[in-house]
Automatic annotation (TrEMBL):
Domain Prephenate/arogenate dehydrogenase: 9-269
Provenance organism: Arachis hypogaea (Peanut)
Keywords, sorted A to Z: Oxidoreductase
Keyword Oxidoreductase: yes
GO process annotations (BP): tyrosine biosynthetic process
The protein, known as: Prephenate/arogenate dehydrogenase domain-containing protein
One annotated GO molecular function: NAD+ binding
KW Oxidoreductase (keyword) present: yes
Amino acid sequence: MSSSSSSSLKIGIIGFGTFGQFLAKTMIKQGHTLTATSRTDYSQHSLQLGIQFFRDVNEFLEADNDVILICTSIISLSGVLDSMPISSLKRSSTLFVDVLSVKEHPRELLLRKLPEESDILCTHPMFGPESGKNGWKDLTFMYDKVRIRDEVICSNFLNIFATEGCRMLQMTCEEHDKLAAKSQFITHTIGRTLAEMDAKFTPIDTKGFETLVQLKDSTMRDSFDLYSGLFLHNRFARQELENLEHALHKVKEMLVQRMSDVLGTEKTA
């Protein structure tokens, strides 16, 4: 479905890697006008998509975008914002949107580094190029309206995801990070632990073990930068890591106790 001209947006993407390109394809399909900038030169790929690519960040910021969508890595966000000549913004009321997997961290950075006139929407599409390759219907899109004055622009941006059938979930950045530490961070931690154990398919796998190997393979496709960002910039992640360590220790204790009980019974039999 294409957007009507009244709801079509000019969207600039900062960080035009795999995820930025993934989102851009749907935005282009809906009729939005896109520009992009990135440390890597994606000008040829952008040309194929019909997107104007800027190597010069000043020129990018002068491009009169309604929305600037930040698709950088978690750990590079602060440096990217510091290096942006914000004074070059064509319009100070631009809506800045991030799509990082942590939320309190970008919220605090954007509030601190952007002009007061800039609107801020923190989001997390709970899907990516693999899980969303056949469409976004019923996939979750989390968002927090951190500082919104222009409700029309914000609504039109959110409608990009609503139109595709996403499950739209509004929650605070703090609540997101609490839940993500228990789910996404733990998932990645288990996957990387299995990788350290060199978990691989065998001829006698149960369905449960096949699922674990698939989890390992899935998490290892993501960079260590992403994983470390989930830990370093989510204040709830450290506690969840300690909870996991404690749980593993407790399970081990239960096994050792059972072994002691069984061996003790056998000796007295």
